[in-house]
Structure formats: structure tokens, C-alpha cells
């Protein structure tokens, strides 16, 4: 009922761990697969290790999470070992996520991560909380998107998904540029930029002042982005952003997604959230007489 083919890669269900949540080590990624995920995305890796931003880096409420972790990671050289170790223990599809400060650096990191047994390469060009370090995110620039994809395609034979930002007003047009440049898929979306102020302290809560909003509050924004992108391109979409329930996941597929990323829902519903969402999807599909996800993919565009 939930078996999915994405870029000719079989997934036993369409749920994948989104980048940034529990995707740090082989053990944590295996734990997610054991708890029902159809595939996993590693936490984004960079050329050199990064410590990220100073604390506090995260705050959560019933409706949203706000984080400015700052893309902390052990660097690509250490990350390669974790990726290989994961694949030694699991047959689940593995998405390798990378970020960089220049198109040339993207190519360097892409070449390295492609030596690991990843199935798909995700290019994170849209993190909203490191602009003071890297400048304007590449996700806002058609030229940058085209240049990065071209340079990465020249050094890897892995299928590429480019991760776009909901902060871009023309996200569908940018997805079209990515497709024309040779991207094999679109990941939509990253977190949306936001902040929170402590009224008593009279200052921003996060040390970085602002960060990325995820969780249920992001869901309707992400859903609209997926809907718009599906209408603009002919390549598949990994939909991520606030998915917490089986109904959320099915809505993303009806908007046009093929895979559905789940991240902050781990905070709200525990590491068993993947199996919970699977059961909820199956129950809704049974109640609605839906035999397969192919029947409903993009169906919301017909209404």
C-alpha cells in the first residue's frame, strides 16, 4: 500500500528522516529505520567540521520549534565513516546532505560524499540561520542554483535533489531553474526564518537572535510550496516541513510529493513517530478506499 519508487529507488514507505534530526551517526539513523522510516537523510555535512552557534540554539512550543544550531557537524571526512557504517547495517535508502560556502566547495564536498554508499545527494542551499557567515542563501539566486548544480553534476553520478527555501517568494520558478540545470529532484522545504523575544529579558531568546521555524506551524507553508513546485516541474519532490501525522503526509502527497520528510515530529511524538504516521496513513487510505499512493499523488491539482 505504501511502497514507493523514487528516482527508481524502492522505499518500503514514503517517509524519510529529514536532515538535521537524529541523522548524525550510523546508530541514530539505524534507530530511525528500526522505528519505521522508509529512508534517512544524514545531517548536512560540510568540508570542515563546524561547532555551530553558541547556546541557546533552540526553543520549542506546542506549535513550533525555533532553532539556530548553525549547521554544526563533524565534517565530511568523519561523516563518510558514519555513512558507510549505516549502509553496512541497513538496506534502507540513504540521502547524503551537504552544504558549502561557494559553488566550488559544493563540488569538492559532493565529490567526497559520492565515495560513500549514498543513494541520493541532497544539496542544502537554503539554511536560514547562517546568512551572517555565508551571505545571502544560494536558494534565492537562479544563477547560483544553476552554477551549483552544474558543478556538482560534473563530479558525481549520484541523483541530486536540491533543497529550496520557503523564504523565496518565487520558489516554483527557482525549482524550474533547478530542473533545467539538471537536478533530479526537489526537496521542499527548509525551515522558514523567524525569531522570538523574551519580553521580561527584553532580548531575543536565541543567541543568534533569529533562526529557522519548523514544526506544525511550518506545515501549511511547506504544503503550499510543494503544491506550487509540483505544478511547475516534472521531477519528483521530497516534501518536508511540519509533517506530524498521517493526514499531513497524505496531504503532502496529494499536493504532489513522492517522499515525505519527517523531522521535528520526533520531538512532538517520539522516535516511534514514523511507525505511527505509517499506521495513520494506512488507516485513512483503507477508510477512503485508496489502494496505492500513486492514485492520489497530485490529486489536489484536479479540484
Automatic annotation (TrEMBL):
The active site is at residue 127. The gene is pyrD. It is found in: Cytoplasm. GO terms for molecular function: dihydroorotate dehydrogenase activity. Binds 1 FMN per subunit. InterPro entries: Aldolase_TIM (IPR013785), DHO_dehydrogenase (IPR050074), DHOD_1B (IPR033888), Dihydro_DH_chainA_dom2 (IPR023359), Dihydroorotate_DH_1 (IPR024920), Dihydroorotate_DH_1_2 (IPR012135), Dihydroorotate_DH_cat (IPR005720), Dihydroorotate_DH_CS (IPR001295). FMN binds at residues 19, 43-44, 163, 189, 215, 241-242, 263-264. This is Dihydroorotate dehydrogenase. Substrate binds at residues 43, 67-71, 190-191. Its cofactor is FMN. It comes from Candidatus Magasanikbacteria bacterium CG10_big_fil_rev_8_21_14_0_10_47_10.
